[in-house]
Structures are given as C-alpha cells and as structure tokens.
C-alpha cells in the first residue's frame, strides 16, 4: 500500500479518481467543479478594481474552491516529500526537448527554465510570466480551464466546452511547435 | 463556475438547506494534489509529450476522467438526485446555441499559455506545494491576466 502511494500512477487509476471529483462535488452541495475561478476569487478579494466582473460575493461563491485550492497545495507538498520527482516521458519527447537545449529531466519542470533566476532571461520570462498571464486571461475569457471545461463541461456533454477544449489544443500546439522552437531553438 | 451562464437543473428546493462545510473540499483538494503529482499531470514534460502526440498518458487521464465524470453527471440528472446539503444542482443545461467567440478566443489564449507554462490552474497550486516556488510568479501573472480580462471584458467579442 505504501509503495503504491509513493510510485507513479498509471492513467487508468488517476483519470477515474480525478473524474470522480465532478459527481462528488455535485452530490455534496450541487457545485460545478472547477479550479480556475479561484483566480477570479483572489482578484475579487485582494485587488480593488471597481470592475463589475469582480463585484460578487467571493466568500459565498468561491469559499469552497479556495479551500480546495489550499488542499491542492497541501496535497502537492505531501506527494512531493513522499515520492519520486522524475518523470519517465517517452524517448521521442526527450529527444525533441534535448534538441531545444533542455538537458535536465530530473524534476517536474526543466530547472534551466523554471527558477527564480530564470525569470530575468527571455525564455524564462516568456514561459512563466507570459504563460501565466495567458492561462489566467484565457481561462476567464473562455469561462473555464482544463477542470471546468475539459472535465466538468465535457462530463455534462456541453458543446461550448468542446469548442473551448479544441481552442486549448490549437493554442497549445502553436506554443509547442511554433513559439517554443523560436524561443529555445538557438539553444539556451 | 460560471455564475452568469449556469442555470439550475432543479428548481430551488423549498426545503431548508443544510450548512455546507468546507472540510470536504479540503480533503478533495489534498487527494487531487496527490493524484495530480503521482500521475505526473503537473509535469511540464508530460504536457509537452501530450502536445507532441508522443504518449497516450495525458489523453488516457483526461479521457477516463471525462468518462467517469459523465457517467456520474448523467446518473445524477436521470435519477434526479439531490445534494447532501439540499443545495440545487448547478448542472449546466444542454445548449444547442452555436458557441460564442469567447470559447474560441479564450480557449486559444489559454492553450497558448498552457503550452508555455506547462501547467493549468490546478497544477500551478500543486507544483507550488511540491516546492516549485517560482509557480508563485506564474500565479501572480495569472491574476494580472484575470484582472485584465475583468478590465477589457465589455470590449472583447463574446457570443
């Protein structure tokens, strides 16, 4: 049992557990499961703006998901101190990324690009700061992220969520196959 | 959760609701944080692998999550199940209207960010807990993005 908890999990264990969150959250209090709305809650709670988009009761509508986000941080910490960090990705991906100058495959993120000091470099700034901005802007414009659209929305068989997920992939493919080679192509 | 686009599947119950506690959400968050880490959903490398179509892993996770979620949601709808706290179900109604611009443009913007950062909102929190503290910078930047959307919302194309 303990070794199960410390080893990487196959997709057919992880996927169903993640999917169960949708009916469980419905069955407890009828809430539609999603994570990215916590970004809006934090804006509403902490950044004075005067925009109508942030004029709602973030405590009443967002208290549950902010609590869940706190749980995600705690769960990440527990998993981080008890298990391996290395990720066994496919050889093809490893070769592609090595071609972009990435050499350290020991963690969840390439350490050459994801560190506080890399924020001052162009690739680090684009990946972390521009990437973060687009994730925040896009998820609110589309009214949902991977959890709200891909999992919750597709679970409810919504056409709008399918379109959003197609959009996620159009954007992700552009970043992966056009922006990253432009940014990292010359080596780092 | 979409406050404005969500309609309730059931009419609000005339019965009094029971208080909604927060600890169940903390438990769900902790379990998901562990699962996201163990299944390597939080890995920038796994997202790259997905967008390069070089492994089934992420597709298997998303696909099986949707399958389980869809069965659960359909059961709740067909059986007319109530929530434990008697709050109305916020299950979105089927919509046959053509999806508006926001789903295309917002989706593509999100995807561009997802491909660069390698993390969607859940993994941003989980990675921070894992010790990738620079995700705090990504989080703050995401807040600026959300704030920008709030500022420009009425000038951006929707539906």
How does this model look, in words?
The complex is a heterodimer of chains A (188) and B (159). Chain A is mostly helical and 188 residues long. Helix content of chain A is 66%, strand content 0%. Chain A has helices at residues 2-6, 11-29, 37-46, 58-82, 91-99, 122-141, 146-155, 159-184. The longest helix of chain A has 26 residues, at 159-184. Chain A starts with a helix and ends with a helix. Chain B has 159 residues and is mainly alpha-helical. Chain B has helices spanning 23-38, 44-51, 57-78, 101-117, 121-130, 135-152. The radius of gyration of chain B is 18 Å and the shape is globular.
Radius of gyration of chain B: 18 Å
| Computed Rg of chain A | 19 Å
Poorly predicted runs of chain B are: 1-9
Range of strand content of chain A: under 5%
What would a concise description of this structure say?
The complex is a heterodimer of chains A (188) and B (159). Helices cover 66% and strands 0% of the residues of chain A. By secondary structure, chain A is an all-alpha fold.
Task: Describe the structure using short key phrases.
heterodimer; A: 188 residues; mainly alpha; B: 159 residues; 6 helices; 0% strand; globular; disordered N terminus
Write the layout of secondary structure elements.
The complex is a heterodimer of chains A (188) and B (159).
Chain A: H1 2-6, H2 11-29, H3 37-46, H4 58-82, H5 91-99, H6 122-141, H7 146-155, H8 159-184
Helix pairs in contact in A: 3-4, 7-8
Chain B: H1 23-38, H2 44-51, H3 57-78, H4 101-117, H5 121-130, H6 135-152
């Amino acid at each position: 049992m303990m070794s199960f908890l410390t080893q990487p999990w196959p997709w057919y264990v992880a996927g169903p557990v993640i999917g169960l969150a949708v009916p469980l959250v419905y069955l407890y209090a009828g809430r539609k499961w999603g994570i990215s709305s916590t970004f809006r809650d934090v804006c509403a709670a902490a950044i004075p703006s005067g925009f109508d988009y942030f004029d709602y009761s973030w405590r009443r509508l967002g208290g549950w998901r902010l609590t869940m986000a706190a749980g995600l941080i705690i769960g990440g910490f527990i998993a981080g101190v008890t298990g391996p960090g290395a990720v066994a990705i496919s050889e093809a991906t490893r070769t592609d990324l090595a071609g972009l100058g990435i050499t350290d495959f020991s963690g969840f993120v390439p350490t050459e690009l994801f560190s506080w000091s890399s924020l001052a470099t162009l690739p680090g700034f684009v990946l972390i700061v521009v990437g973060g901005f687009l994730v925040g802007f896009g998820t609110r414009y589309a009214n949902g992220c991977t959890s709200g659209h891909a999992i919750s929305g597709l679970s409810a068989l919504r056409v709008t969520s399918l379109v959003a997920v197609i959009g996620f992939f159009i954007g992700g493919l552009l970043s992966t196959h056009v922006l990253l080679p432009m940014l990292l192509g010359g080596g780092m | 959760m979409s406050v404005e686009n969500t309609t309730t599947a059931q009419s609000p119950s005339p019965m009094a609701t029971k208080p909604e506690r927060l600890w169940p959400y903390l438990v769900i968050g902790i379990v998901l944080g562990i699962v996201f880490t163990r299944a390597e959903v939080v890995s920038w490398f796994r997202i790259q692998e997905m967008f390069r179509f070089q492994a089934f892993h992420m597709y298997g996770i998303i696909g099986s999550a949707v399958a389980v979620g869809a069965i659960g949601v359909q059961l709740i709808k067909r059986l007319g199940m109530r929530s434990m706290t008697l709050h109305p179900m916020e299950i979105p109604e089927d919509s046959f209207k053509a999806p508006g611009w926001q789903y295309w443009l917002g989706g593509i913007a999100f995807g561009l960010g997802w491909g660069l950062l390698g993390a969607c909102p859940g993994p941003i929190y989980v990675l921070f807990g894992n010790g990738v503290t620079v995700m705090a910078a990504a989080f703050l930047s995401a807040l600026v993005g959300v704030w920008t959307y709030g500022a420009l919302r009425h000038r951006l194309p929707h539906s």
